[in-house]
Each structure stands twice: as C-alpha cells, then as structure tokens.
Amino acid sequence: MKKKEEMVLALAKEIEMRKGELLENHFDKLSVTKSKIETIYFGGGTPSILSVEEIQLLIDTVYKNFDVVENPEITLEANPDDLSDEQIIKLSNTQINRLSIGIQSFFEDDLKLMNRAHNAEEAKKCLETATQYFDNITIDLIYGIPNMSNERWLQNIETALSFCIPHISSYALTVEPKTALDKFIKKGLVNQPDDEVAQEHFHILVNRLQEEGFVHYELSNFGKPDYFSKNNSAYWLGKKYIGIGPSAHSYDGTNRSWNVANNTLYIKSIQENQLPSEKETLTTVDQYNEYIMTGLRTIWGVSLERIEKEFGPKYLEYLNLQSQKFIEDELLFVENGILKATQKGKFLSDGIASDLFLLNLE
C-alpha cells in the first residue's frame, strides 16, 4: 500500500478512535451532552495534495463519528501551485466552502527570496479562478521583507484588494534557521529584516484595510463582517478542538495534547489501535497566561470580570497593577470592563502580554 493511502486511512481511523472526546458528563451522571463540530480545517503542510475523493472520505468520517452543525465552515489550506483550474472546480463541488491560499507576495523576487514554489503570475491566476467558484477566501501576505519599500508593500495590498477577497491574514517575515533566506542574510546578500520597517508596514496594512471595511479582529487577521475565520476564532476564544494527524494539537478545556510528528511512527501507532499522543494538564497560571496572550491579540480583549471569576481576585489585582504602565503609555485601554490593545499597542501585543504573564501565584 502506498504511503499516502496508509496516511489517509490512518487519519480516518484516528477520527473514529476519538469520537468520544467531545462528550461531557454532567454532575447528575444521567445526562450527557455532545459538543457539535462547528469547523473542519484541512491545514498543516500541503493538504491540497490529497485527492478530492480522499478529502471527501475524511469529511464523511467526521460526519459519521461526530455531531456537526448544519453549515460548518470547512476550510482547505493550499498554495497557488497546488490549485489548478481543474482542482478548484473539483473542490467547489465538495463540502469545502472556504479556501486559505498562501500567496505571500505578488512580486516575483519576494517569492524567490522566500523560496516559494509558485510565481507571481500563478498567484494571480489562482485567485482569478478561485474567486469564480468560492465566496469565502482568505490569503496570506508577508510584510517586513528586506528592501521592500512602503510603496511596494501598498501595491501588494492593492493587488489583493482588486480580487475582492473578504479575508486577509498577514504576518511579519521571520527568518528560520537553515533556510535559503537565512543563508542569504549570513552571506550579506540580503539585509536582516528591520523591526521598524515591519511596524510601519503593519500600520499601513491596518489603515488601508480598515478603509475598505475590513475589521482588524486579531493581530494578524482582517475580515469583512461575517467572514472572520470561525476555526481560528475558536482557538482565540478558548474553545475545545481536536487535531488529527502527525504533529496535530488538541485542547479539551483543561488538557493540551499533541501527536507524534514522525509520519511512520504515527501510522504504525494508529494501525496498532494506539493514539500516538502526549498530554499535559494546564495549571491555573498556564490558563491565565494563555487567556492574556490570546485576548490582547483580538478585538474581544481580556474580560476583567472573567479574570476575577475564573482565576480569583489575586489574579485581577496583579493584572490591574501590571497593565497600568501600558495604559499610561496608550498601548492598552479598558472599555466596559474589557482590557484591550490600542492600534499602537496591537503590533506589540505579544510583548505586552509577556509582561503581564505570571510565573506563579500562591
């Protein structure tokens, strides 16, 4: 049996093995509720290498083993070079109703610098076809690329807007070890990414997208009303989720677990009816820190009432004390009992959150 076929069967089997994970037993021990699946996301790596039939098999397996809401958001993550016209048309005839396309840039030299497999023409052609068959599309764009002027970055944004897509995710360029970009920088062929340039690009992006009616609902995410990512919003709002496949992470409200990364070990374990995962139980401090980190990145912010109710008055007292300097510097503000980041503070929200973190609180 081919490795790909083994993997698909293993994924389907893991879904079946985990069908009871969303059951909730109540205190009377007589009533059991089953949480409903609201989103299905094919992501991580290149899930678009799966055939339409294989994707449909996995969707069908989810429906057989879980309760699914009437109109779930079903997303496929793909790169432009994976999405031929024929593939897009085939996907449009499945239950997939959202595409996440890794465009990164509409400029050829940027794509070469980031060692992307697709070219600028493929990126545009992909969106031309995709927008004919899918209403709900998101793309990724990278800012802070060395030698990218503000004008060039704005051109990237304008090109994206010309396709009338309803959602954009945008991230600052990071240099991963042992990549082509890392080697170019070490050889002095390319400048190191500049934080000030990245911050300037970020504010250009925020202002331009807001002019077009996008809501900046999370640090790196912008959506038209009714087009926020339901899948990613679930993470930020602390909802439970199940991750299927190698390296996939899951969260049940108290515990976080993750599957083994090695494909061969993953398949072998599933074939032996063993879940290839490790688990950790989050402490109260862990849960507080995660809530601060995710909350400050989003428009939903951090509820001071929730901090007191779920974590206790000591946590609220600590948060109020630590956040005061950021409020004075106009990086944070409190509105109707919700602590939020200002536009100036959003770009720095991860760093601000780390200053509000707790190591321990007796």
From TrEMBL:
Q: Which UniProt keywords apply?
A: 4Fe-4S, Chaperone, Cytoplasm, Heme, Iron, Iron-sulfur, Metal-binding, S-adenosyl-L-methionine
| Matching PANTHER family | COPROPORPHYRINIGEN III OXIDASE, RADICAL S-ADENOSYL METHIONINE DOMAIN-CONTAINING PROTEIN 1, MITOCHONDRIAL
Q: Which residues form the Radical SAM core domain?
A: 1-215
Give one Pfam family, short name only. Answer: Radical_SAM
The protein here is known as Heme chaperone HemW
Family from the record: Belongs to the anaerobic coproporphyrinogen-III oxidase family. HemW subfamily.
The primary site where this protein sits is cytoplasm
Kindly give the SMART domains that the UniProt entry links to this protein.
Elp3
Per the entry, what this protein does is: Probably acts as a heme chaperone, transferring heme to an unknown acceptor. Binds one molecule of heme per monomer, possibly covalently. Binds 1 [4Fe-4S] cluster. The cluster is coordinated with 3 cysteines and an exchangeable S-adenosyl-L-methionine.
User: Where found in the cell?
Assistant: Cytoplasm
Origin superkingdom: Bacteria
